[in-house]
Specification:
Length: 206
């Protein structure tokens, strides 16, 4: 299922990120802030369990998270979403999947994978700002599922219809969260209007 989180603050910050003259520092800061805002909505259906505690005033029955959360950024650009979410969920463990997209074929290539041992029991958030053809996100989800993940959500900033379609076909059990659903891909596989190359803009490599 696709969720587009079109909150005014998210829209405003994403507009700043999209502008070609926005530099690395502001790009990263806005990404961090949007990831935090998205985390609030994405965690809405994480299960809770009853717990008995004692406040300074009285004992009470209340609730706490019943499942651990694992963040899996797709390297590199997904790294830019980790801190914003971790600020809200500081106990979240972090796995990593390294994928790069071949510029000619647009096929993803895996170069790194490492996960915490609680992956099978956790709610797993796969993070990547860009969902273009969907090849990278689909591969990352396959990798975490092969390592035992059962409850997976995909969190991206900007998506193309082609990428959404790919995830729906390959992983119908995975909820997709976007800050914006854009128009299309261009002939180089870039999202239009998009925001350019997210990894290069986060790390200043171009
Ligand atoms: C970008 C982006 C996604 C992928 C999206 O990464 O961060 O991972 O492309 O494209 P897709 O949906 O068509 O697979 P890139 O391969 O440029 O690597 P980088 O993050 O290291 O820059
Ligand atoms: N990867 C990016 O960083 N941007 C796009 O528009 C497509 C893939």
């Amino acid at each position: 299922m696709l969720h587009v989180l079109d909150h005014p603050l998210i829209k405003h910050k994403l507009t700043q990120m999209r502008q070609k003259d926005t530099g690395t520092k502001d790009f990263r800061q806005n990404l961090d802030e949007i990831a935090g805002l998205m985390a609030y909505e994405i965690t809405r259906d994480v299960p809770t369990q009853k717990v008995s505690i004692v406040t300074p005033v009285a004992p009470c029955e209340t609730e706490e998270l019943a499942k651990e959360i694992v963040l899996v950024p797709i390297l590199r650009a997904g790294l830019g979403m980790v801190n914003g979410i971790r600020n809200l969920v500081p106990t979240a463990k972090v796995g990593h999947v390294g994928l790069y997209r071949d510029e000619e074929t647009l096929e993803p290539h895996e170069y790194y994978a490492k996960f915490p041992s609680n992956l099978p029991e956790a709610v797993v958030f796969v993070l990547d700002p860009m969902l273009a053809t969907g090849g990278s996100a689909s591969a990352a989800i396959t990798i975490v599922k092969q390592r035992g993940a059962k409850m997976v959500k995909l969190i991206c900033l900007v998506g193309a219809p082609e990428g959404v379609q790919r995830i729906v076909e390959d992983h119908p059990d995975v909820d997709i969260y976007l800050a914006a659903l854009d128009e299309k891909l261009n002939e180089h596989g870039y999202i239009v209007p998009g925001l350019g190359d997210a990894g290069d803009r986060i790390f200043g490599t171009k």
